[in-house]
Amino acid sequence: MGRxxxxxxxxxxxxxxxxxxxxxxxxxQAAQAKRAAYASQAYWARPLPGFGDPAARVLLVGLAPAAxxxxxxxxxxxxxxxxxxxxxxxxxxxxxxxxxxxxxxxxLTLCDCYVTAAVRCAPPANRPSPGERENCxxxxxxxLALLRHAQVIVCLGSFAWDAALRAVARxxxxxxxxxxxxxxxxxxxxxxxxxxxxxxPSQQNTFTGRLTEGMMEEVFMxxxxxxxxx
Length: 230
Hints:
globular; six-stranded mixed beta sheet; alpha/beta; single chain
């Protein structure tokens, strides 16, 4: 099976997942209690698969879909402020063909980059439980296996950093000792992968200046440089 076919098959399995009753209830409740701005829209209200370039050398891992962002549009980081920030930065770094991501059919394509999440359903208060994280972890492990050219994993926030460490270890690469700590610009080498830490582009970080456009671009340029090394 080719990697594109494998990713498509995995996407179908992710979308059909109902492993976590709390998350199923929350994502469907959010789709019923729509925000006024989206009252006329049909919400996706299902888990979100990753998307991007099957030959990507750079993999981005976020936390989870937003209740009225990805849970509405059906694509991770699409239709919310975090996504506005993220895809504008990916466009400036040459990973995206446009700076906006507003819907699944908006023409966005990624080059040498694939975007996914540690948890595939919108969680209440953006806080998945440890059990919910573990239920989703096998999907990330399978993505690592299917994205055979991936060399760099950019982790958007500490939750994604922890998930990536677990997924790479589950894929058969022992974690370094001591355990690598998350930080913006932190890096850790694990087998064929280099993990890079980046603050999550949440409004809590971008509105306060904890994360600036320049800081995110530096991480993406580092990812591009590392991925280009033989």
